Amino acid sequence: MKKFIYITIFVLIFSQLSYTNTLSLEKYLQQVVSNHPFISKSEHEYGEMLIAISRTEGLKDWNLFIQSSYGQGYYYDASTIYNNDSQLFSMQGSLSKLIPAYGTKIQIRTDYKELNEIPNMITGLPYDNYSLSLEMIIKQPLLKNAFGEMDRHPLETSKYRTNILKIKYREDIEDFIMIQIKEYLDWKLSYINLKIHNEQLMKAYGKVDVLKEQYAKNLIEEIDLIKARTNAQLKRVEYTKANQSYYKMSKIIKYHCANSSENITEEYIPVLAPLKIEYPSEKDTIYYLENESDVYMIQDINKQIQEKEVEYYNSNLKPELSLFASVKSRSAKNNLDDTLNNLGDQTPFTIGVEFKTALNNTDALKSFQSEQKKLSKIIEANNYSKLKVRDLVIQIYSDLRYLNELIKDSQKLLMLSKRNSSLELKNYNAGRSSLYVLLTTQDQVLSSELQIETLIIQKELLENQLLSLLDKVISHYNIKRNLVHE
């Protein structure tokens, strides 16, 4: 009866799994990227930072200023004559713009005043006056900020930071995908372990049933039956652990696929076939990482940004020498029409130079020296990073070679263990070996099978880490989503 129950349990578990849908790593990653809130959150964060960086474009904007006022009841200047009906309306405005490409500053100013019923200082009689002026001022730096080298600084560095942001965004997504790859491989290993433990458990239960019949016929001693039952119970404990591990990982995988455990109706099992991952030679990998990779690009851009900082603070050491010019037109009459008609009759202009500098300029000098030190530090940090990259690549390729050899040796050990177990079973059935020896050889088979599968998963995880270093995780698994904003 128990044998029938054991077989029924095995059939219910694994016949069901045999007919569920298989979920490949590529398909799993595609579903996770499509549904997971981390991806959407990262995209919004990327967009937010991109907008923040693009604010520097505001340096190119025109700036408008307008001010207007109205007043009533005035004394004439330097006089005690007062008119309660006198009125003053004024409006000032300016339009200014910086041209970063040249450092040129342009400003257009206007000033309009309308005076009504203003007391005359001599006669005391009220009169009206309308005045309007237009002025254009141009200022061009010649030493500090010559040709806009300091004004362009925020615009140039913002382009570099945008490129870094794109790369880091893609790196963050790949890091997230690597976490999902590890979880998938853990799920895959837990399924394989469960399957192996279940097969061993069924064999142990079958051995117990055979020995029970032999014990009932007084063909064996009770100690043999107890050993078999003990072995079966140990297998049961290991099976329960494997089952719990698989159940936990399955819930995680299904939740990530559907983004809600309540909406999941399909059952999946992992694809058991080994992953096919091709990667370049160790030498080519090192070259890529040191000259073309995302890591290299970030380091190189950071160096370029700091070089721009050094240029900026070097320019700040120079004295300010600027050429300025202004032209102004003003008209003032007793009525508005005459004021407008006479505007332009008088157009005085001014041209000159402006010079200003700190005698010691200590603050600017120390700032420049500090930025130089930062640049040197970045260069040395990049060189140190290259050494670490080389060490990492050497370690990964060494581990891959080691795992490949270990897998081959373990596969040979498994073949020998199976052969040994088969021969011990014949010896045991012929009465030439003990049950303890037989169970030991069977445990060796189980251990070898589990070791091989664990080594294969370790190798696949290491290969995916190598893909991540080579910036090929997204392309290798054909992940379809606009992960990098253009």
Structural class: alpha+beta
User: What fraction, in percent, of the residue positions are helical?
Assistant: 55-70%
Radius of gyration of CA atoms, rounded to a whole number = 42 Å
CATH 2nd-level architecture of the largest domain: Up-down Bundle
User: How far is the first residue's CA from the last residue's CA?
Assistant: 67 Å
Q: How many strands appear in the DSSP assignment?
A: 8
- The CATH homologous superfamily of the largest domain is named Outer membrane efflux proteins (OEP)
Strand order of the main beta sheet, please? 2-3-4-5-7-8
CATH top level assignment of the largest domain: Mainly Alpha
Mean pLDDT: 85
Tell me what portion of residues adopts beta-strand conformation. 15-25%
- Shape descriptor reads elongated
Q: Look up the CATH topology of the largest domain.
A: Outer membrane efflux proteins (OEP)
Low-confidence stretches: 1-12
- Please give the domain count: 2
Largest sheet: 6 strands, antiparallel
Instruction: Return the string of H and E elements.
Output: HEHHEEEEHHEHHEHEHHH
